[in-house]
Amino acid sequence: MKEQLSLSLSLDRASKISLSEQIRQGIERAIEQGVLKAGARLPSWLDLASQLGVSRGTVKAAYERLVDGQLVVSSRAAGTRVAERPLRAVIREERPDEGSFTQLHQEMIAGQGIFQLGIPAKDSLPSKVFARIRARSVRMETTGWPTYPDPRGELDLRQEIAGYLAISRGIDCTPAQIIITSGFAGGLGLVLRALALEGTFGWFENPGFPFSRRALEISRIQLVPVPVDDEGIVVDYGIRHAKQATLALVTPGQHAPLGATMSLRRRLQLIEWAAESKTWVIEDDYLGELQLDGRAAPALMSLDRSGRVIHLGSFSKTISPKLRIGFAVIPAQEVHRFAEVAATLAPAPAPSIQAAISEFMRDGLYIRHLRRTRRLLISQRDVLVECLSRRGINAKIAGLSALIELQQGVSDIAICRESAVFGLSPGPLSPWYADSSQAPAKLLLGIATAPISSVDQACDRLAHIIHRHTASAAR
């Protein structure tokens, strides 16, 4: 009979590393060093929580991460044990430096908890149907002649996207203008490489997506933060402060993260300025037509007659970010320049994944999936707002997020880090601002990852954390 060990772990309660992560690291270290051998049984959640003076949820979160890392296995009958034959070598990943961009990425995007931003509703996709389509695509790819695929992307998918954009986003383009990319980030990288605007000024929405902002900084574009109001980016401000800018990155459909739709007046003003100054406008259409109230506004590119708008979209919010499939719609006169960059530096992802999405769209399944997703998200949004309201928390809907304002002196980042211990992944608003120290403290709660079956308990836990931090800040 395998022994159950009494773990000797030391926790630093003053550390910025969560208690759950300290427990996980301690157990992983013990496995690496041979202190915990294959088959050794770990204490139960309750026993270890009692031993360390922490909540059972803290221990549970640590164990779940160890299971995800294939270091331990868990079953109701046998408890939690060190894996007999680890499926991978134990590789210790160094924690990112405090305040580093890598840490921000892990905390804002890599989570898997309730309220996580930027990922679709888990139950909306007909996963079995899509899995069959994808398996068929893989078989066809592996049995066909092994040739290099078109770096711009498979023609079938580009044709489907062109047809979809014409109907849903009002964009009149040909398949030749579309380049398939590795998600939105791949599309942005393609555009920045092709335009080669190093050393010039670029407008960026303030607040705006931190990872897009960092991409522009890496490309050595001098950023000009431009404020956003209820009509979208304030074009007059941008012209006054950086009329000579060569680039503007905007989210006109639904501003990320505040949710405003850019007004027609602002759209026309932005396009007119771009045409006169020969400026490029990158349209991040990150939600496409996933607008929950009313009909989605046509894409900014649908109004462009001078060929200055580049449209970026992806299937990350509608199908899955794991597919890493996005697309760029290029003005006709620039197609050859962008195709050359795609062929040499950023070729399209695996043809089998492209073929699966193409079939999914061609058979009408994608449109039906979007309709079903909207209905689901509306239900989840309404229940989430009601659950928060019952706990005295007022939420403003911002796109596919619920925005919660915190009292002055409360750290949105501290609340998010503590919430992660309990399987919750709200996002802090402050990192979205160019100067986070001057940003208002607010939380962003993803609607898509707030299932009705779990949201009441999640709101209860989050409310307790918020109230405790509020009381502490008031002292």
From TrEMBL:
Record carries keyword Metal-binding: no
Q: What is this protein called?
A: PLP-dependent aminotransferase family protein
Q: Which residues form the HTH gntR-type domain?
A: 17-85
Question: What is the similarity comment for this entry?
Answer: In the C-terminal section; belongs to the class-I pyridoxal-phosphate-dependent aminotransferase family.
PROSITE patterns per UniProt: HTH_GNTR
Organism for this UniProt entry? Delftia acidovorans (Pseudomonas acidovorans)
Taxonomically, the superkingdom here is Bacteria
Q: Which PANTHER family match?
A: HTH-TYPE TRANSCRIPTIONAL REGULATORY PROTEIN GABR
In the UniProt record, does the keyword Transcription occur? yes
Under the heading Pfam families, the entry gives:
Aminotran_1_2 (PF00155), GntR (PF00392)
Gene3D superfamilies in alphabetical order: Type I PLP-dependent aspartate aminotransferase-like (Major domain) (3.40.640.10), Winged helix-like DNA-binding domain superfamily/Winged helix DNA-binding domain (1.10.10.10)
Matching SMART domains: HTH_GNTR
Transmembrane segments annotated in the record for this chain: none
**A GO molecular-function descriptor:** DNA-binding transcription factor activity
Q: What broad taxonomic lineage does this protein's source fall under?
A: Bacteria, Pseudomonadati, Pseudomonadota, Betaproteobacteria, Burkholderiales
Keywords on record: Aminotransferase, DNA-binding, Pyridoxal phosphate, Transcription, Transcription regulation, Transferase
